[in-house]
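Weekly puzzle thread! Below is a chain. First person to post its structure in token form gets bragging rights.
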Amino acid sequence: MTTRPGNYVIVHRDDAKNADDALLAEAIRRRRTKAGIPDSERHREKWRLALDMLDEVRGDWELPDLPVVADAGYGDATGFREGLSERGLAYAVAVKGSTTAYPGDAVPRRPPYSGQGRPPGPAYPDPHTTLRQLALDEGRSTLRTVTWRQGSKTTRNNPRAEMRSRFLALRVRPANRTIRRAVDGSLPECWLLAEWPPGAAEPTDYWLSTLPADTPLRELVRICKIRWRIEHDYRELKDGLGLDHFEGRNFPGWHRHTTLASLAQAFCTLLRLDPKAPAPA
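Winning reply:
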């Protein structure tokens, strides 16, 4: 800020920006105070929140370490997949077909040393590609029809309402700068599962999974597709038990509401699993 004769002030652009930032910060503080948000609460990506919840479940609830399934909103986050592997948890997560990877049999090589500078480390000689391209290169000849569960809608061609489609499974090495490599420069290997329905020009859905390499295709499909159970429970939470009916505007009220809705859903689930229950929940 610079003062000049004549009772006027020249405000530099940086000063104006700082003033705007201060006003914005004060407005945010007032809104947080009104909503009852603790000062310690800050934004965290949802995949980090998911890892936090898994840590709580494993540490306090003493539940077994079962494979983790998730949609592409989590699966596309490399940090989420790395976090699961660091915790020793297998996963089967949906990802986009544009996710980059090498074939499972790709081997890094150490380029020849010219004698100048630092010796080069091992690297893959060929550029990485995408999961979509790896599936297309494999072709339709490797597709297998798999039935993973029985649905509820019967048709003339499907009187048993079997949920089935065509799949292929490949061993791949996802490629990303943040993925940790072994001493020899190799990237971790995992499953790529691609769903390629009849009549489709290319695969429609992709999953990455760290289930064991000897996992049968049908089991791989079943676990990748088991997320329908989560969607069912979430729909029950929202529509049947009022999770999305909350209209409050404060931090404690939201947490009380979600806790009560979750407890109600857990109670209904226990009733469904109880063979002595007088009626279905």
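Puzzle host: Confirmed. Bonus trivia for everyone else. The beta strands are 2-4, 8-10, 68-70, 91-95, 100-103, 129-130, 144-150, 162-174, 190-195, 205-209.
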